[in-house]
Amino acid sequence: MKETQAAHNLTWIQEEIDALKQAGLYNHIRTIDSPIDGWVTIDGRSLLNFCANNYLGLANHPRIRQAAQQAIDQYGVGPAAVRSIAGTMTPHVQLEEKLAEFKGAEACITFQSGFTANLATIPALVGRGDLIFSDELNHASIIDGCRLSRATVVRYAHNDVDDLRQQIASHTDYGRRLIITDGVFSMDGDIAPLDKICALANEEGIMLMVDDAHGEGVLGRSGRGIVDHFGLHGQVDIEVGTLSKAFGVVGGLVAGKRSIIEWLRQRGRPFLFSSAMTVPDTAACLEAVTILEESSELIDRLWSNAALFQEGMKTMGFDTGHSQTPIVPVMLGDAKLAQRFSRRLFEEGVFAMAISYPTVPQGKARIRVMNSAAHSHSDIELALDTFGRVGRELDVVG
Ligand SMILES: *Cc1c(COP(=O)(O)O)cnc(C)c1O
Questions:
Q1: Cα 88 from Cα 82, distance rounded (Å)
Q2: I need a labelling partner for 216 at 20 to 30 A (CA). Which of 105, 188, 374, 379 fits?
Q3: Does the C-beta of 242 come closer than 6 Å to ligand 1?
Q4: C-alpha to C-alpha distance for 58 and 37, rounded to whole angstroms
């Protein structure tokens, strides 16, 4: 009797899952049986990989592998504590100092991921009675961080500084105020007008936070990120970033004024209540920064691959949206078409994910192509060839 009732309580889950499948919105998760690189092995086949945020090919870079191995020999694996109790080890401090210097910021704090960096930072800066102005396309971790803070969230139109100005003018009842934007928007590859947003924030005396997860290692001198790209050092209060994308490892960071970083060490809940980054992760990230400081070769190759791909797609008649970065959305509209397109690419040896609602708005499904320095120009030519063939087969291009 009890068992039947329990089963009945959960039938809604199966109904929801079936509905997702019906609508072409069910996420089929592939297992990769090789290192993450330009090519990956899935189900025993080698495929060209256009899904990873591995912009610079660092996820399987020999120097990064070696740095992680050496650190394990010296320090073991896990800190076995939260940072604030007994989990801060020398590699953590070295990484934070190196990142602050790299980004031209006064100080830096690291977290387990970019997601937790946002969950830590936003509620530490604003609370009930305060106001957050948030770009309508901001990342889920920003949205969740805003919810956790209990501040009032005012969404402004995507990258629209005039709308932001109007929203600021029409919300006059507040305690503290914070503007938050993604640096590079992950599903479209466009860049926030951070110079204009920064000028407005300064004019109005509002705190400014940018989440540069997709700009880290991609934009700016040697991948120093969006603040460097716009030359805004010292003017953007909080720069959030991730070590899980271009850096090829895992982890999150916040760079900014010393007082803010000090405050996050006291009040950032994932810092206080969730264990520290592991030793090999930390050492690998440190090596990644060193590689970026030494040469721009990987970044140059990334941008050259991205340009080659985007030009080729446009020439064939594909709609690649408004991308300004190595993220290239191949706009298809219909979610089922996007899934079919991705499946056909997969069969033809190209791994590129279909992205649909709720990650992007309804009717804006796409294949999202992530370019990488791990590809050669002939890899890109091969991908273009495959996209063209599948595109003609599915009547997306003529
Ligand atoms: C990917 C991403 C994150 C999350 O970073 P993780 O390190 O993977 O947790 C946060 N913000 C933005 C804008 C992202 O694109």
A1: 8
A2: 379
A3: yes
A4: 8
Residue that is written with structure tokens 């595109």 in the block: 391
Predicted confidence (pLDDT) per residue in 299-329, tens digit:
999 999 999 999 999 999 999 999 999 999 9
**For domain 23-52+296-393, which CATH number applies: 3.90.1150.10, 3.40.50.2300, 3.40.50.1240, 3.30.420.40?**
3.90.1150.10
**Which pair of structure tokens corresponds to residue 37?**
């690189």
Instruction: Look up residue 117 and give its amino acid.
Output: A
Active site residue 229: no
pLDDT in tens, 34-83: 999 999 999 999 999 999 999 999 999 999 999 999 999 999 999 999 99
Range(s) for CATH 3.90.1150.10 in the chain? Answer: 23-52+296-393
User: What is the dotted CATH code of the domain comprising 60-294?
Assistant: 3.40.640.10
H or E stretch at 56 = none
Ligand 1 site, residue 182, Cβ cutoff 6 A: yes
Active site residue 214: yes
